Amino acid sequence: MTQERNDADVAFIRALAELLNENDLTELNVKREYGESDSLNVRVSRMTAPPPAPAPTYAPPPAAPAQTAPVSEAPAVERTSGDPAEHPGAVTSPMVGTAYLSPEPGADAFITVGAQVAEGQTLLIIEAMKTMNHIPAPRAGTVKRILVTDGSAVEYGAPLVIVE
Amino acid sequence: MSAEPWPEGVGKRILESVDSTNAEAARVAASLRGPEWILARRQTAGRGRRGRGWTDPAGNFAATLVMHPQEPPEHLALRSFVAALALQDALIAATGRPPGFALKWPNDVLLNGGKLAGILLETIPTPGALHLAVGIGVNLRHAPAPEPGAVAPVDLMSATGVALDPEDLLNLLAPAFARWEGRLQTYGFEPLRQAFLQRAARLGQRITARTVSETHDGTFDGIDARGALILTTARGRITVPAADVFFDENEARPCS
Questions:
Q1: Torsion over CA of A106, A107, A108 and A110, rounded to 10 degrees?
Q2: Distance of alpha carbon B249 from alpha carbon B228, whole angstroms
Q3: In the prediction, which pLDDT does B146 show?
Q4: Contact B50/A104, CB-based, under 8 Å?
Q5: Residue A53 covered by a domain
Q6: CA-wise closest residue to B227 among B116, B90, B107, B65
Q7: Residues of B in contact with A104 (CB under 8 A)
């Protein structure tokens, strides 16, 4: 489903933008292959002084052949293992469904970035077939990043939260 | 009334009144040694999906089964179909009237095209174990006020003239649930998928699936091996794991 991909891509780009800021880089180029004819090219760069405002170049309408604009002059940064799914602290989705960050609309989110969580504490909910799956923290730690937005569609294995 | 005996090893707890049977399930889950049904004659704070209220006047059915499933989390949601199939069986057994009952993805039981029951499943994270609460509400005596756009609620008494006591329904539902659960354990999801499609309202017809961010109009073309809704839209075939499903209002006619 296209919306799921879009949301996953948006989360991915957001994570890249954070990586850029955290490591004080000026530019990040990443290409992600989803299949033979489907890929995502992202370039996140920082202009000058004003910090965040990442300008993602968003390539693929899925199903269409990869018409990835050749953005890169030289892949400036080779720190490409910024894929949050590879992060040791990543909590990934055990199912396909819709992610909710709060127990119900209007309520406080289960977690915020910087919050301490205990092992087993609910980080978020993923709904599938009217089943509300509470996703527990696999270990105690600090919430470093939240990689999904409320109501977004998530795929199996998609990184949800980073707890360190 | 109960043709099938109460399932072995399954507990039964009857409460006069509780906030919500799913909330009670969360409180007691860690102390239970096996599966248990919790029935409340009144719910004072019944809950629907995503914080929606669920009103429970006296005489309606409100119960939750607490389970301790051992399989991977992605399979838990298949209990939605176990619950819907079992509840339809129990209602047919109670009323002796198979025609008129139908299922709406993923787990609503319809009667004469109206919403008769709601089912909400929630996992209960407890230290070292995972519990699943299968909450089931049935309008036995009273139907809530209709909501715009949604399938109109209906109650069993008005629609069939049958006055069914909640505990009598539980005595039919518990064995039916155990029977479908046994099929799931033994044969996997496929027989449940087939049974669901045989009983599904609006199969092959136009429906609307609304997620938090999108609305999809399309033809209801079945459910996949995970239980997700298959919809053929103008933009192609999609599968939807979580959504509210709406039928065309002007086509609202009895199902099956």
A1: -120
A2: 23
A3: 82
A4: yes
A5: no
A6: B107
A7: 50-51
Q: Is the CB of residue B234 less than 8 Å away from at least one CB of chain A?
A: no
Give the CATH number, domain containing residue A152. Answer: 2.40.50.100
Nearest CB to B106; choose among A7, A130, A151: A130
Domain spanning B202-247: CATH 3.40.50.720: no
Distance CA A142, CA A125 (A): 18
Question: pLDDT tens-digit profile of B1-59?
Answer: 447 999 999 999 999 999 999 999 999 999 999 999 999 999 988 877 777 777 777 89
> A18 and A91 in one domain?
no
Task: Judge whether B127 and B104 are in contact, CB under 8 Å.
Answer: no
Inter-chain contact A128–B49, Cβ cutoff 8 Å?
no
C-beta neighbour count of B211 within 10 angstroms: 20
Positions in chain B whose pLDDT score sits under 70: 1-2, 248-256
Range of the domain at A33: 2-45
Give the type of residue at A54: P
Within 13 Å, how many C-alpha atoms sit on residue B20's CB side?
19
Q: Give the position of tokens 């539980």.
A: B170
Q: Which three-class secondary structure state does DSSP give residue A5?
A: helix
Interface of A with B in 29-68 (CB under 8 A): 63
Contact of B133 with chain A, judged by CB distance below 8 Å, is answered with no
Q: Which residues have a Cβ under 8 Å from the Cβ of B176 and sit 6 or more positions away? A: B4, B85, B86, B87, B89, B90, B93
Residue B244: Cβ within 10 Å count: 15
Q: How many domains is chain A built from? A: 2
- Listed in sequence order, the DSSP H helices in B73-165 are 79-95, 156-160
Longest dimension (CA), chain A: 47
| Nearest Cα residue to B211 out of B191, B225, B231 | B231
* Structure ipTM: 0.91
Kindly list the residues from chain B whose CB atom is less than 8 angstroms away from the CB atom of residue A107. Answer: 51
- Quick check: pTM over 0.90? no
d(CA A24, CA A35): 32
What does the alpha-carbon distance between residue A143 and residue A88 come to, in Å, rounded to a whole number?
Answer: 13
Is B50 an interface residue toward A (CB < 8 Å)? yes
- CB–CB of A128 and B121 under 8 A? no
